[in-house]
Design goal:
By secondary structure, the protein is an alpha+beta fold. It is 32% helix and 28% strand.
């Protein structure tokens, strides 16, 4: 049942233009994914909702967009050069590589039962070269996280905006990790997008700030429609903490695949608990490290207490791709309608890729088609709206249900006489006749 649901999600994503296999016409490149017309709208809506909640609606968060390529010393200071690795084992028979932490038997290949090599460290950073010549001196890395760009700009932000503690920096951007065992659709990929906040606080306020951010981020997922039974918090044990962290809480989602080693088994709970977002207390590790390696003073000066110190950093860090997948899974429903099964994505109205679809009942009537297109052009000024006349009205409704469209507006023969259209709700399937002149006001009330 669990695997069947995931198969349905993957099929829907391909069939309706949410997510495609990367480089598919060439046989695909493993674990790369392209977002199609509906997928990119959903992804953009998710990022807008995150930015609105964490930057636009707050006075203490500033936005940034930092470079993917950074000075090599950044990754020495951050600890990624020496600490950012997985232990790996290779099968001597089938030549596949496995993450040691995922193996039940560290000597036997889980695929072919062949003998495994001894575990050895494998750095997760992608290596590339700056300049036209591939020499060791030109070696740099694609960033494995967006966070370091905000740390190295700490002084610039203090000089440019003069913020007072506590304050934060927010960024959405691509990161790259040469994962040994990517998989489970878009859950774990080597190229992914992060939504990260670095929140700088007085060390004595760090515990309270961590608690507040955990609850804030947990509530954000609930407010956008994730079912409460599919969301939980899990405290990291001391043996799990990253080298920089004092504490960390994961916000986990119950994905319909076996994606976690923590908590209940997937067989028992209908899925596997896995990290959706982590909220960590990074202490003052990052600023101290960059101060040491750069020679710059990265302390904060409190002009009231006349003292300098390194702030602690609270970091909520979530994956855009994982969140998109979680919202797709959570919104997927199958409903019996007479003798048929209706597949519908009941996405929150902020996230739904399309808000309104305009559908002419008869595509062989030019006057109906023209009126429907005029209505579509008008609504597009306010919302993401689509015009579709490529099937019968029943098929068009089902198609829009599958992509989560909130309202369908049908233009029919009667519309030509009474200047009214039929508006159908995705969630209730109820239909109302609305005057064309009042249609936009009607939708504003429903969508705002």
């Amino acid at each position: 049942m669990v695997e069947n649901l995931m198969d349905k999600i993957v099929s829907l994503c391909k069939r309706r233009g949410f997510i495609f296999q990367g480089s598919e016409i060439y046989g695909g490149l493993a674990n790369t994914w392209d977002y199609g017309p509906y997928g990119v709208e959903l992804k953009n809506n998710l990022k807008k909702a995150w930015w609105k909640a964490n930057v636009q609606e707050r006075n203490d968060i500033l936005g940034m967009d930092c470079a993917i390529l950074m000075h090599p010393k950044v990754w020495e200071a951050s600890g990624h050069v020496h600490n950012f690795f997985d232990l790996k084992s290779d099968c001597k028979n089938c030549k596949k590589r496995f993450k040691s932490a995922d193996l039940k038997d560290p000597t036997k290949c889980p695929e072919c039962s062949g003998q495994l090599t001894e575990a050895r460290p494998f750095n997760l950073m992608f290596k590339t070269y700056q300049g036209p010549v591939e020499e060791t001196g030109n070696e740099i890395h694609l960033r494995p996280e967006t966070a370091q760009g905000m740390f190295v700009n700490f002084l610039n932000i203090l000089d440019a905006r003069h913020p007072k503690l506590p304050f934060g920096l927010a960024q959405i951007g691509k990161s790259f990790r040469n994962e040994i065992t990517p998989g489970n659709f878009t859950f774990r990929t080597r190229e992914f997008e992060q939504m990260e906040i670095e929140y700088f606080v007085n060390p004595q306020d760090a515990d309270q700030a961590l608690s507040e951010w955990i609850q804030s981020r947990f509530n954000w997922y609930l407010n956008l429609g994730i079912k409460s039974e599919n969301l939980r918090k899990r405290q990291h044990g001391k043996d799990e903490l990253a080298h920089y962290a004092h504490a960390c809480m994961d916000i986990e989602y119950r994905f319909p695949f076996f994606a976690t080693n923590h908590g209940e088994s997937a067989e028992n709970r209908g899925g596997g608990w896995a990290e959706l977002e982590g909220v960590a207390n990074r202490s003052d590790f990052d600023l101290k490290q960059h101060a040491q390696y750069s020679g710059k003073d990265l302390q904060y000066f409190d002009d009231l207490k006349k003292e300098k110190f390194y702030p602690y950093i609270i970091e909520p860090s979530g994956g855009v791709d994982r969140a998109v997948l979680a919202f797709l899974i959570d919104a997927y429903q199958e409903e019996k309608v007479k003798d048929d099964t209706r597949v519908v994505l009941k996405l929150n109205k902020e996230l739904a890729p399309v808000k309104v679809a305009i559908l002419p009942l008869l595509r062989n009537r030019p006057e109906i088609v023209e009126l429907a297109k005029n209505i579509s052009r008008d609504l597009k000024k306010s919302w993401m709206a689509v015009y579709d006349d490529t099937g019968s009205i029943g098929k068009l409704y089902r198609r829009q249900d599958e992509v989560g469209t909130l309202y369908c507006v049908t233009v029919d023969v009667q519309t030509l006489e009474d200047k009214q259209v039929t508006v159908r709700s995705r969630d209730t399937m109820l239909q109302e006749r609305i005057n064309i002149e009042g249609l936009k006001s009607y939708l504003i009330e429903k969508l705002t």
